Amino acid sequence: MAPGRRVCSPAWSDIHGLLHMRLNDAAAVLHISSTRLKLLCRRYGLARWPGKKIRSLNAKLEKLSEEAIDAREGTLQGAAARRPLGTIAQENGKVLDDLVAVYAQIESSVAEMWKFGGDGTMNLPANSGVPVFSGANN
């Protein structure tokens, strides 16, 4: 390895907290390249960076909550004013379910990739792309 070069492999807990961000922004926070972050995510079992989907669902939730507030206050205009508050609440529930499903799928993928044995060792699938080293010196 070249002098001064630092190899950084953030833990899943570090990456998990940044899933709502753009890939490039998350990589900058972690001080790694976006390519390295993509590689790490694949090794953790995540096929795609979910930031766009999460941000989209969060934006829908915010819009629906603003619409619900406006509906309660009676300040909605046009076609939105004719929507019952119950309909807005149902849409809000569906978006929340979708957001929970995204995170559940992420956790499921990661859990499938990283299965721990009873002795604390990692049992990785053969096709995981993660190099497996034995504890003994050969």
UniProtKB/TrEMBL annotation:
Lineage top rank: taxon: Eukaryota
Ranges for domain RWP-RK: 1-78
GO molecular function ontology, one term from the record: DNA-binding transcription factor activity
Swiss-Prot/TrEMBL keywords: Coiled coil, DNA-binding, Nucleus, Transcription, Transcription regulation
InterPro entries referenced in this protein's UniProt entry, alphabetically: RKD-like, RWP-RK_dom
Keyword Coiled coil appears in the UniProt entry: yes
Pfam families in alphabetical order: RWP-RK (PF02042)
Transmembrane domains' residue ranges: none
Function: Putative transcription factor.
Protein's name in the database: RWP-RK domain-containing protein
Organism: Eragrostis curvula
